[in-house]
Design goal:
Helix 1 packs across helix 3, helix 1 runs parallel beside helix 5 and helix 2 packs across helix 3. This protein is mostly helical and 135 residues long. 15% of the residues are buried. The chain has a domain of 77 residues: Orthogonal Bundle (434 Repressor (Amino-terminal Domain)). 64% of the residues lie in helices and 0% in strands. It is elongated and about 50 Å long. About 7% of the residues have low confidence. This is Transcriptional regulator with XRE-family HTH domain.
Length: 135
Amino acid sequence: MPKQPNPIDVQVGEKIRMRRRLLGISQETLGTALGVTFQQVQKYEKGTNRVSASRLQNVAEILGVSPSYFFSGEGEPGDRESASATEIADFVSSREGLDLNIAYSRIGSRALRRRILGLVTALADGTADVGNEMP
């Protein structure tokens, strides 16, 4: 039976992946900056291989965060908040989530961003009036 990755290693890997993709950095670019192959970066991101403390410090510097960033925001395994955070991290790390976040962040008007957020929230809550009003 194959050994399962430690949940903390998986969490650290997810945070590396999410931040790297948010910055638009490829696995190859991150690997080159770290002196490792892109395959090694993949293993870090999946939690298959552990990231040493010194390597995590290097990753944090490259990605512009503190090392504590990789450990924040998660509850105990099995907590509802932890599951929700994992779902959010999965979405934000997806191509669609990344594209949405990049496009949203490019909207210059704070008022417009708030209106878009209100619309999306209403759609998600099922309270938006989106009947068949097509002409």
